[in-house]
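Long-time lurker, first post.

We've been arguing in lab meeting about whether NAP would sit comfortably in this protein at all. Half the group thinks yes, half thinks no, and nobody has a model to point at. So I'm putting the question to the forum: if I give you the sequence and the SMILES, can you give me back a predicted structure of the complex? Inputs are below. Any interpretation is welcome too.
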Amino acid sequence: MAFRILITGASSGIGREMAVRLAKEKHKIAITGRREEALRETADQIEKEGGKALVLVGDTTDPQTVIRHYGEIQNQWGGLDWAILNAGISLRNPGTQFSAAAYKKTFETNVLGAAYWLEAVIPDMVKAKNGTIAGIASLAGFVGLPRSGAYSSSKSALMVLLESLRVDLAASNVSVVTICPGFIKSEMTDKNDPRDMVFVLDAEIGAKKIIDAIKKKKRLFYFPWPLALPMAWVLPNLPRGVYDFIARRILKRRLKDGKKC
Ligand SMILES: NC(=O)c1ccc[n+]([C@@H]2O[C@H](COP(=O)([O-])OP(=O)(O)OC[C@H]3O[C@@H](n4cnc5c(N)ncnc54)[C@H](OP(=O)(O)O)[C@@H]3O)[C@@H](O)[C@H]2O)c1
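Top reply:
Settle the argument with this. Predicted structure of the protein with NAP, as tokens:
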């Protein structure tokens, strides 16, 4: 059966890989992002794989743009079966040079951008008593990672929001899936120092795992397990003094290696 699917942030990375993979199953896929040319490349790949693409160019931090985009989806398809809220940014924001502007931009994209879409899609899904909403959070949302305060806290906010919605929407037969990936190769992680990343997955593999979890309507899915185990289970439950000790040792080593902080 062909689904009507939204993927925000499908002009690159995980979003594009998910779109291309889902296209092989002949779904209708609405894709969003600010870069029109890159989005059109994703759309070409969707059509080549046998899916149907709807290109929606614009900024997810602008609520009017999201309302307009959802209006186009309603006009074309009447609504959605799946909404995958994937658009996100990661800005370096070390505590010693803390920037409220970077914090604001991160929350506007990673949290409010998702919230605008939630406000748009939930009423029709509740009315239809059908739908799946998936949010791409991160293993970084389980703890306040050093030098990533804005990113970590934005992903925590998204996870907690989705958790609350999952319970609220269950009686309306709308499923909410929270996805917490570890490191996946993409434009976002291409900016990182490779020494800061472990158990890095190709975007194709990451996209497959995410889609499988959405199909199974998993409440909370984190991967890969060698990184998920410490990030989601061990670190959050350590006494804070032990966490600080470990995190500071890692930070110190990075500084010794000549990294700016
Ligand atoms: N890669 C990882 O290791 C990793 C790990 C955990 C979670 N994640 C999460 O996975 C999601 C996808 O990231 P990625 O790794 O695939 O990075 P990416 O290649 O940089 O993709 C980010 C996508 O988000 C879109 N986006 C960003 N700001 C936007 C805005 N204001 N309006 C509309 N679209 C916007 C980008 O499109 P435009 O630039 O065209 O607007 C792009 O399509 C993010 O939420 C990220 O936090 C990634």
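For your lab meeting: The first helix runs from residue 13 to 23. The radius of gyration is 18 Å. Whichever side wins, do check it experimentally.
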